[in-house]
Amino acid sequence: MIDLGVSWIDVAGTGGTSWSQIEHTRSGLRGTSAFAEWGVKTREAIEAIRENGEIVQVGWFRRASQWIRCRESYSDRS
Predict the structure, then answer these.
(1) What is the pLDDT of residues 52-78, one digit of tens each?
(2) DSSP states along the chain
(3) Average pLDDT for residues 12-28, to the nearest whole number?
(4) Is the torsion defined by CA of 60, 64, 67, 69 positive or negative?
(5) What is the mean pLDDT of residues 11-24?
(6) Which of 23, 26, 57, 64 is the most interior residue, by most CB within 10 Å?
């Protein structure tokens, strides 16, 4: 996508709020959502694109200290 001129990629991962699960529950359907086990962890998703463009991270952090550690980790690799 970067080669095609895409400047930004919205990266989100598993481990937090599952919007597919919320929508599945709201629909009233029984059983497991087809997307229940789909996706990768947020940190893995960020690692996959880190070297190819800018990163804007939303979610995942519960405390400021987590954001600081993550930011320092990526700054050291630049």
Answers:
(1) 666 666 666 677 787 777 777 666 555
(2) -GGGT--------BSS--HHHHHHHHHT--S--TTTT-S-BHHHHHHHHGGGS-----S--SSHHHHHHHHHHHHHT-
(3) 78
(4) negative
(5) 75
(6) 57
Token match 């690692």: residue? 47
| CA–CA gap between residue 15 and residue 57 (Å, rounded) | 14
Please report, for the chain, the start and end positions of each structural domain, with discontinuous segments joined by +.
Answer: 9-76
Using an 8 Å Cβ cutoff, are 39 and 13 in contact? yes
Residue 46 CB coordination number (10 Å)? 19
Q: Which pLDDT belongs to residue 77?
A: 53
Rounded CA-CA distance 11/58 in Å is 8
pTM, to two decimals:
0.45
